[in-house]
Amino acid sequence: MNYPSKVIEDAVNEFSKFPGIGKKTALRLVLHLLKGDERHITAMGDVMARLKTDIHYCQKCGNIADADLCGICNSHNRVQTTVCLVEDLRDVMAIENTGQYTGVYHILGGLISPIDGVGPEDLRINELIERIQADGIEEVIMALSATMEGDTTVFYVSKKLKEKNIKITSISRGIAFGGELEYADEITLGRSIVNRIPYSA
Fold first, then answer.
1. Mind listing the domains of the chain with CATH numbers?
2. CA-CA to 79 of 20 to 30 Å: which in 14, 100, 103, 151?
3. Cβ proximity of 92 and 63 under 8 Å
4. pTM (two decimals)
């Protein structure tokens, strides 16, 4: 694709780095910004910069937070002894939208995937084990996507927790195999959390 300006080309290349954004969509976004008010572009740039400078991560669960602890970990209304193990922030948001879960979370930051070069040491598994010992966790709910990588991660983590004398459960398989949690409808996901089952390797 030929661009009338190097600045336009650079902007398109940056936008197309976003997931699901191709060059044509990126060009439409750039042209939209170009036609808009300069204050809008400046405000957008400021917000983007603040994503790196002003965002913090919860010291307990890894969720995005405005302070040392996120609103969920800091809430007296949450069951602090039940931890839902998820891949990333999108899964926390998906489960929270169901309104069915009252415990807290632990974000792994990914899934074990040797083909992608992601091993157990790249995930927040040791932090989970430390948290179980420090906070008196009684149950860990495995709420990872029903994919090969998700099942591998669940198997690995469950083996690490086997001697911790805690209850290990898994969300029920209302989620189809190969399905990502963030794309599940709220009713199905909510029922999967409520109707969780004991996990056995």
1. 6-53 (1.10.8.420), 61-198 (3.40.1360.10)
2. 151
3. yes
4. 0.74
